[in-house]
Structure formats: structure tokens, C-alpha cells
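ingest -> validate -> predict -> emit
validate: passed (alphabet ok, no gaps, 283 aa)
predict: started
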Amino acid sequence: MNIIKTSIVLNRYLNTIRETNTKVTIGFIPTMGALHSGHTSLINASVKNNDITVCSIFVNPTQFGDSADLEKYPKPIEKDIEVLLKNECDVLFLPSNDTVYPNDYTQKSYDLNDLDLKIEGASRPGHFQGVCNVVGRFFEIVKPDNAYFGQKDYQQTVVVNRLIQITNSSVKLNVVPIKRESHGLAMSSRNIRLSEKGRQNAAFIYRSLVQLKEDISNLGLEQSVKKARQFIQAQKGAHVDYLLAVDSITLEPVKNMEDSKGIAVVTVVEYEGVRLLDNIILK
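emit:
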């Protein structure tokens, strides 16, 4: 595996490969490190379907509204390198902040059709504009054929899809299903901040989503969402930031299964001081 820290060297490396094989396909996984099995599922999907897989590790400051959250974000780079080697990643792109955002770079404000202001965006102003700036920069630098994102960050996948559309990018977005721990908790780099007991207990989030899906035939969508929210809120130490059924394209709230062609239920639960994201696709 090649570890590359500058865009100039990465461009030179990838261009040489493209010149040698004009049909080469490049897969790209942007990460902020602290890699776990959720990330490796993205890497494995890329390795399986592309000639070259590039994974970036960059803790992007523009998507953190809270500087304390940025400082607390885990950065176990040596362990991450071991994970990438084990999973046959070809290139680790490990840029500095100056490489991603050079002095002449101006932060862009993308027209995201208000997707960045809804749900998670309402709780984290500027977050998705920050995501789009860094993803846009990486697409410019890497020029991948395929990009891989996890379903766990559902709203992010919808936002990145919009970014690809408005920038007329040729990158194909591939959304990989959520990877879960054995008890059902969605895998996340933040999970290491939970106590061992808390990590086990937090499986109630996924259980509530599965039950919600089962309840729809009897209760309907609106009441099933209400029941799930009440169940989570009743768990000791749990606080529901939001739990909503939304349209899969507009992210507008949906009350009935007939109201939209695509519907997902998205939630964030704060537990032991950690914000835990999860979702389930209904159709």
C-alpha cells in the first residue's frame, strides 16, 4: 500500500496508472479514520469492484460545529494503517489541512435544496456544507470512478448525491448497507466512547427501528414512529434528538407509507454523552 500525503504526488501516481491502462477503475472511500468494520465493508466493496482503491483519512474541521467534538475525535493512525493493509487497500491518502484547503481555496456554499438544513443539519449548522467542501475537494484530487459511503450516515448519502448532480460529476455514488455489531448497534467510530455496558445496551436503538417496521401494518407509519420514539425515550439515560420518517430524496417528513416512493426512518439518540446515528429503509 502506498501512503501519499500530497495531492501532487497522488495525481502523479494515479495519472501514471491511467496512462498505462486507460480502462482502469478507481474506487474512493473518504474517512476520518478510527476505522472499524463499517469502514472495511466500504473498502471491500471498492476492492471487489475496482482496479485501484484509494482511502483517505482526514479529520475535516469544517464539518465540526463544536471544536471540543473535533478535539475528542479519535485518531489511531497506526491501527488504521493495519486495517487498510489487511483489507488490500492500494493507496492511503493522508493529507494535511493545507493540502485539502490551500491558501487560495475559498469555502464554497453549495445549493443543496435545503437538504443541509434539515434533520441532522438543524442540529449541526454548517455541517453538510463542510462535508460537501471536503468531498468536492477529494473528488477533484482523486477523480474516482466510484465513491463509497455508508448507509449509516443516511442524510450524508442524500446530500452527496445532490452534490454530484449539481457539480455534474461523473463519480458514481455507491451506498453500502449498515454494518452492525453482534447485538445490533450500528458501527461507528464514536462507539469507543461508550462504556462496555453502554455499548451493549445501546442496541435498543436498532431494536426499536426493527419493531417500528413491523408495527406499520397494524399501526400505520405515524403511530409506529411515535411508539418507537417513546420506547427509546423510556430507556434510562437515553435522549432522542430526533426520530423521523422522511422522503428518501427531499428528506421532508412523511406521515403515511403512500406519501412517497422512497421512505427511511432516521434517528439520533444521545446516550452516555455520545450521539448515535441509525436508520432503517422502509421502501
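Residues 33 and 57 are 5 Å apart (CA to CA).
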